UniProtKB/TrEMBL annotation:
It comes from Spirosoma endophyticum. This is Cell shape-determining protein MreC. The lineage of its organism: Bacteria, Pseudomonadati, Bacteroidota, Cytophagia, Cytophagales. One of its GO terms (cellular component) is plasma membrane. Residues 60-87 form a coiled coil. NCBIfam families: PRK13922.9-3. One of its GO terms (biological process) is regulation of cell shape.
Length: 278
């Protein structure tokens, strides 16, 4: 307390000067319309700027919650869209999918906690595991396209084999050309992927969308994989050399959706039974 008193005694002249300046400033503002208006406008401008900075800081602090809410909303919309597509497939008008088939896909939102893109075989770790109903073999998509397939799980985490893996294949379909092929990463650039097994005698257009085909039990049909970037004939072969721009940007992957096909085990069991009888 004594040191505080000593400080005021030592600084009494400066403190008096500051008080007199504030008093003069007060009298100037209150006795002059011009300076009063100037002060009012200036203070409002700076107050508005400070308020804008405060709002921007609050919005930035809430981005994590906003992103999580958007991911949950996308999960709901994905389920509704997939159900609608499964209920109305490209088939004769008299065909109608039964309710179990239309509702066979379920989506679970998860956050990416680790992700590699620089290796020949890349993996992704998410914060959902067996306690959340995740199992090996389930497909994984992003809000923009295909991501990969669940490889292993524990109670709270799962590791996904990324589509950026040299041995991972995805049954694919060219939308305009209506041709079935296989998407496979060549291990070079994480922005691009190859589309294999498309006959060079089939017309392929740059910009054509490539989506998951109905010839797999992992993904719903129609999930975007990429768009055709370039088309060229493969030397000494009867196939196109097709490069796609990947729809999913793996460099900033934050949220993904794990796809459960409720009828997958039933389908694969039947197909395996047929293969064993051959």
């Amino acid at each position: 307390m004594g040191e505080l008193v000593d400080f005021f005694l030592r600084s009494r002249h400066f403190i008096l000067f500051v008080l007199l300046e504030v008093l003069c400033f007060y009298f100037i503002i209150n006795t002059s319309n011009y300076w009063s208006a100037t002060y009012f406008n200036t203070s409002n401008r700076y107050a508005a700027q400070v308020l804008a900075w405060s709002n921007a800081a609050n919005e930035y602090a809430n981005l994590r919650k906003v992103n999580a809410d958007l991911a949950l909303e996308n999960q709901r919309l994905n389920a509704q869209l997939t159900k609608a597509l499964q209920s109305r497939p490209e088939a004769p008008a008299e065909y109608r999918a039964d309710s179990a088939f239309a509702d066979r896909f379920k989506f679970t939102v998860a956050k990416v906690v680790d992700n590699t893109t620089q290796f020949a075989n890349n993996y992704i770790t998410i914060d959902k595991g067996s306690d959340d109903g995740i199992r090996p073999g389930m497909g994984v998509i992003s809000p923009t396209g295909v991501v990969g397939k669940v490889r292993v799980c524990n109670h709270h985490f799962s590791v996904i084999t990324s589509i950026l893996h040299s041995e991972y294949l995805v049954s694919s379909q060219l939308v305009k050309a209506n041709e079935i092929g296989t998407a496979k990463w060549d291990g070079s650039d994480p922005r691009f992927i190859k589309l294999l097994d498309i006959s060079r005698y089939k017309p392929v257009s740059k910009g054509d969308s490539v989506v998951t085909s109905g010839h797999n039990s992992t993904f719903p049909p129609g999930i975007l994989i990429g768009r055709v970037l370039s088309v060229a004939p493969m030397p000494n072969q009867t196939f196109h050399d097709i490069t796609l721009n990947l729809a999913t940007n793996f460099s900033n992957l934050s949220f993904v959706y794990v796809v459960e096909n409720r009828l997958q085990a039933e389908q694969e069991q039947l197909e395996k039974q047929v293969d064993n009888e051959k």
